[in-house]
Amino acid sequence: MIRGISFLLILVFSSLVFGQAKPLSQPEFVKMLYALQKTPATKEDIIAALRSRGIDFAVTDGVLGLTRSKSGNDEDIRRALLEADRRRQNPEAAKLPDKADAEALLAKTRQNTLDAVGEMPDFVVKQLIQRSVAYAGTGTFRNQDNLIVAVSYRTTGQEDYKLLSINGILQNDPKPKESYEEVGGTSSTGEFVNVLATIFKPETDTHFNAVETDIVRGRKAIVFEYSTTKDNAHQVISAAGLLNQSTVTGMTGRLWIDVADARVLRLEDNATEIPPDFPVRTASRVIDYDWVKITDGTYLLPTVSDVRLTLRDHDKLFETRNYIRFKNYQKYGTDVTIIEEDNAPPDNKKP
């Protein structure tokens, strides 16, 4: 049933400053993990506590192992735990800037991001996509297939997709598509600049709030929460194939903004206002951005994207995951070729 449905993802917690509430102790955190197995809905409570209260214990391999097993290998909880550990080790560096400095950084990032849309060149890139599925809430993903897709991006914002291989078998369809949804299963678009542009456009009326600091690939970042309504975001989730339905959603999530460059290093995006009768119950993605060279220029573009949808199939809930690696950005018109290492499984599945 899952294989016959194609899903296309197109594109607050308390504002207490860390340190005002007593940090989580290790026994308290472990108790929350065990409670999570009985009540999966407490996941958001755990993440909120880690982010707002922090921790008073070192995150050892044993703590990480227990977190992985009791949370069903949940990446959101693991990421929040590691963020809290960095703040524990260096509380001075974790202090937020004052309101004026945070607003100035946000304004500069908005301008840089919108300017970058117009400065982006035409390019092609190779996507290595590992698609998997699990019963919702278990985290026990079973691999479905591995795709290699060539993506052409134009300065108009158009994205064209050409499926190159499925599970190592070359595909002969030369005609580019607006997505790779014709192979069934989950597909996604809009990772390059469209989603960031949507968040920062003045007409989207996005609300921002600086909540904490973090280190991303050695770069100090301020983490902002954001939210906007479906009437302003106009984000679309489409259930094509057997269901052939679509809905407009809002957006909420987090942005990790580089303090030095005023650019987004990481995006966490969750769909909101999904109608209760829509087959897709949740839709989220985490995108890591980094600087890549295309011909004579350097541009901030995605390197990893982790896309997840929770969908209802009769009385069961399933979660699909697309783990996407972006490789070999090149100028538009360059042939995209498959090499032997493209078919190797990813070494690190954590964006």
Report what the structure shows.
There is one protein chain. This protein has 351 residues and is α+β, with helices and mostly antiparallel strands. The protein folds into 2 domains: 2-12 and 116-343, no CATH class; 26-89, no CATH class. Helices cover 23% and strands 40% of the residues. The chain contains 7 helices and 14 strands. It has helices spanning 26-38, 43-53, 61-70, 75-89, 99-119, 194-200, 230-233; strands spanning 5-9, 123-135, 142-153, 159-166, 169-170, 185-188, 207-216, 219-228, 235-241, 245-258, 264-272, 280-294, 297-313, 316-331. Strands 1, 2, 3, 4, 5, 6, 7, 8, 9, 10, 11, 12, 13 and 14 form a 14-stranded mixed sheet that branches. A hairpin with a 6-residue loop joins strand 2 and strand 3. Helix 2 packs parallel to helix 4 (75-89) and helix 5 (99-119) crosses helix 6.
Structural class: alpha+beta
Tell me the series of helices and strands, N- to C-terminal: EHHHHHEEEEEHEEHEEEEEE
| Overall average pLDDT | 84
Quote the distance from N terminus to C terminus. Answer: 29 Å
Oligomer: single chain
Strand and helix layout:
Elements: E1 5-9, H1 26-38, H2 43-53, H3 61-70, H4 75-89, H5 99-119, E2 123-135, E3 142-153, E4 159-166, E5 169-170, E6 185-188, H6 194-200, E7 207-216, E8 219-228, H7 230-233, E9 235-241, E10 245-258, E11 264-272, E12 280-294, E13 297-313, E14 316-331
Parallel strand pairs: 1-6
Antiparallel strand pairs: 1-9, 2-3, 2-14, 3-4, 4-5, 7-8, 8-10, 9-10, 10-11, 11-12, 12-13, 13-14
Helix pairs in contact: 2-4, 5-6
